[in-house]
User: Fold these one by one.
Assistant:
Number 1:
Amino acid sequence: MLMLPVSARETTMSNATVMIVDDALFMRNILGTILREKGYTVVAEAASGIETMKKLHGCDPDIIFLDIILPDANGIQLLDAIRKIKPQAKVILCSAIGQEAIVRKGLDQGARYYVQKPFSPEKIAEALESLGE
Amino acid sequence: MDMSQYRDLFVSESKGHIQVFNELIVRLEDNASDTPAIDELFRHAHSLKGMAATMQYQAVADLAHRMEDLLSRVRSGELGFAPGVADILLEGSDALSAMVSAIEADDDRLPDAADLVNRLAGFNAADIPPSPPVSASGTDAELRAGDRDQPGPAQDHQPRQTDSFKSVRVKTETLDRLVNITGELITTRYRLADRAQRCEGAQLEEPLNRLSMLLRELRDEVFQARMLPFSFVADRFPRLVRDLSRKQEKEIQFQVEGKEIELDRGILEEISEPLVHILRNAVDHGMEMPEERIAAGKPGSGTIRIAVTRDKDCVNIVVSDDGRGMDPKRLADKAVEKGMLSREQANALTRHEALMLICAPGFSTAETVSDISGRGVGMDAVRAAVHALGGGLVIESEAGRGSRFLLRLPVSVSIIHALLVECGPLAVAFPVNAVKRTIELRDGEIFAERGQSFFSLDDRQVPLRSLNRLLGQPAASDSRDVIPAVVIEAGGAATGLTADRLLGQREIFVKPLGIPLSRIKGVTGGAITGDGRIVYVMDASALL
C-alpha cells in the first residue's frame, strides 16, 4: 500500500484518501491544494491512463478525481477499468464545459459526481458533500 | 482562493503549450492528414483554456477556446488543414504568447485580441474545400483516443512529456551552483593531492584515488543534469524559417537532424541567437527565389538543414543550404573595395579565409540591419559567441551550389580541457578545442618576411607571434635552442604563439573574472590549478 507523508497541519476532519488524475501539473497542484486545505490526504497523482492503473495497484484511495480527457485514454473506458479493480473507490469526474454527454455516460457507469473546470473550493466542496464525506 | 501563487506555473506551462502549438502547426502544414497531431493540438488548446479559466484570465481563455473550436472543426472534417487555417492558428499562438508575456511581466493590460477572436469564430470554410474527416467521430468534444489495450496513437514524434513524480523541475541557478561547487571540489582535490605528494608517509593515495573517482562521477552527474537536447533551441526554428520564407515568397524545406543530441544548457543559451542569425541569412541572402532556382536547374523548393552530431567531447552543428552560395573571390574583392584589405592581401587569402570575411565586423552592411532588435547580431557576433565557448566556426561554400556553416562546440563549458602555457610570470590556458597542436621551433625553422615571423607547418606558412608581447609580458631570453609555440586556430587561419614554457594539459574549472579583469581583451575567465596558481583562460582569436 502506497504510504505518503501526511502534512502536520492537516486536521483529522476527514481522513479520507484521494487520488488525482489529470494530465496537467497545474490542475493537479490546484486540486491538491484545495483538497489538502479541507483535510484530505492526497495519496497518489497520475497524468495518464497507464499511470493511473499502475498507481492503483499500489494504493487504495477512497476518492478519485478523474479528468475525462487524458492523452492516452478515453475517460469512460478508464472509468470502467478503475471500477473493475477498485469498485469501492468513489469517482468524481472532472470535465470542461461542453462535455455533458460524456459526463452523463460516466455517471451512468458508476461515477458518483462531477466537477466542471475551472476548479474552485466551492465546487469541490459541493462534490465532496454529495459523497457523504 | 489566491491564484497568484500559481502564476509562475501557469506561465511556464503555457509557454510549453504554445511552443508545441507552433511545432505541430508547422508540421501539419506539410502533412495535413496527421491525425494524432491534430488531436494533440486540440488537447493543448484545451489545457491552455482550462488553466487560463482557472486563473481567471478571461481573455486568454476566450482566445484558446476559439482556437479549440476551430480545431474541433478540423477534426470533424468540416475544414481541411489548409494554409489559411495554419495562418490564423499561428496568429492565435502569437497572440497567446503576447498575453502570457504580459502576465509574466505582471502587466494588467493584456494585448487586445478581440478582432482575432471574432475572425476565428467566423472562420469561413467557403474558400477551402473540406477534406475527408480526420477523426472517426465528432460528438461533443469527445476525444478519439485509442483503447487502453491498443498501443497509443501512432506517433513518429513524442507528445510533450507530461509531468509526473519521475522528474522534478530545477532552477538553472541551482544547477549553476552545483556546477560551481563541484568545480571547487575538483580544484581542492588537486591541491590535496599536491600537498600529499610533499608529505612523506602520509599514505593518502588510496583515499585520494577514491575521492577522484567519486568527484568524476559527481561531475558527470551534475553535467548530465545541465544537459538539454538540441531540440530545446531548435524547436522554434521550423516556425521561424516558415515565417521568413513566406514573407519573402520563397519555398523552403527545413530539416533538423540530431535534435535529441544533448548539450549543456549554458552553451545552448549562447548558441541560440547565433543559429537564428545564420538561418535568417540562409533565407534572406542564401536562398534564391523559386524562379531563379528553376532557371538554374535546381528544384524550386530550397532546402535548409541543421545536422547535429556528437564526437567525443565536441558537438558539431552544421547549417547547410542548397542556395546560391558565396564566391570567395567576390568576397575578397568586396573587402578590397571597403578598404579592409589591400589587393595583395586579398590575393593571398585562402578560400577558407575569404569565406570567413563575412565574419569581419562591418563587412556586410545588410547583416547589421536586422529586426532582431538590440542584440547587434551579425556574423562577427556569431563567430565571437562560438569562440567564447571555446569552439570553432568554419564556413564552406560554392557559388551556385550552397553554403555550409560548421559550428564545433564543446559539450560542456565550465570544466574544460586546457593547455597551460607559461608566459613571463603568468600562466595562461588555451581550451584544447582551440589548439591545433604544439610545436617546438628551432632557430632555423623561423623566418621573417616584411617584419612578420613565419614558420612552416604542413607545407604552409603560418604566422608566428609572441604571446609574451601580446600580453605585455617581458620577452623570454632570445638565446633559447628551442622555442615552444602553440598553434591555434583563429578565424579559420592558423597562428603560432610563442611562449616561455609549455606546462601541459589539464582539466581546469573556468570561472568568470570580475571587473576590471573581465574587460581584458582575449581573456575569458580564470582558474586555479592544483598548486594554487592562477591561470588566465584565453580566447585566442580575440587576442589577435
Number 2:
Amino acid sequence: MADDAATAEARAKEATLVAWLRERGRVAIGFSGGVDSAYLACVAVDALGAGGALAIIGRSASYPAAQWAAARAVADRFGISVLELDTHEMEDPRYAANPTNRCYFCKTELWSLLVPAAAARGIATVIDGTNADDLGDHRPGAAAAREHGVLSPLALVGMTKAEIRALSRRRAIPTWAQPSSPCLSSRLPYGTAVTPARLAQVERAEAALRALGVEGDLRVRHHGDLARVELGGTELDRWLDADCSALVSAVRAAGFARVALDLRGFRSGSLNVLGGVTAA
Amino acid sequence: MSASTLRDALGALGVDAAVEARDRLALLRPRAAADARRIAGQRSRVAALAAEHGFTHVALEIGAVATEGDAALPRD
C-alpha cells in the first residue's frame, strides 16, 4: 500500500541519516524544539549516545517561551544535552528593520555564536533541522548557515516534513503532531520594525488563544492596531460559527485595538505573499 | 486594488460591509451581525472576490460594526 511504501522509504532515509551522523562522531544541533530539530536531536542521541550530541538553543525575544518549554521537555525526556545561548539579533538594525531577508541576519547572529560554542567543546560538525521541503521556500537564513559551514542532514537525505512527522511518531517524540512554529518575528509584515514590545503582543495573543482551546495552526499577524488571526480550517469554521467575544477579548487584552479573522485561514508564509516575496 | 469596487461586489452577494484597504489586505467590517454571518457562510466566495479585486488577503473584523462614515476606507 502507498502508506506502507512511504513509511519504508522514510525509514530508509532515517537509516541513511543515522549512518551520516555516525560518520561525524559528534554533532551540535541548532535546537528550537520544533518538529524538525527535535527529531534530529533525538536521532542524533540515539545514533551517537548522549555524549555525542549537543543541542544548542538560541534564546531571544523572538523565541516564544512556550517553544522553549517544549524544547526543554523533549530534551529531558530523550536525554539530550542542552546548551542555551542568548542571541542579540534585535540589536542589529538590519534585522530590526525587518527586510525580506531578515532571517539572514538572525541566523548570522545565531550561527556566529553557536559554531564557536560547539568548537570550544570539541565539536566540529554543526547541523540544523532544515528538511527537503524547505529547500523550495523563501529562506534567506539558509545562506547564513552555509556561510558558517552548518550542514542540513535532513535535507541531505531528502527527508520531507511529512516523513519527519511519521518517523517522530514512531519514536514517540511528542512534537510529531505539533504545528510548525517559526519565530515570532514572522508575524510582522516586512518593513514593520521588529521590537520586543510587538513580539510580546503577538506572543501574549497566541498564548491567550491557545488557552481558549485553539488547536492546530495559529498565527496572530501584527498589523499595528490590528491583529489578523489565521486559524487552521477546522478552527476557522468553528470560530466563524461561534460567539467570538472571548477571542476578541483575549486578543485585545494582548494589546491590539482591533481583531480580524483571516477568511482564507492559516497560510504558511502568508506575509511573504503580502510582501510580494516568492521562493528564492 | 479597490476597496469601493470590492464593497460593491460584496453588495451583490447580499453583504453590507465597509472595506478597508491596508496594502493588499482587505479588511471587512460588517454593517450588522447578519452581514458577518453572510460573509462567514460564503467565505470562499468572498476570498475569491477579494482576489479578483487585487487583494491577496481578506479578513473579517470581529467585535466591531461599520458606521455610516466608513463605507470604504482606502488606508494605504
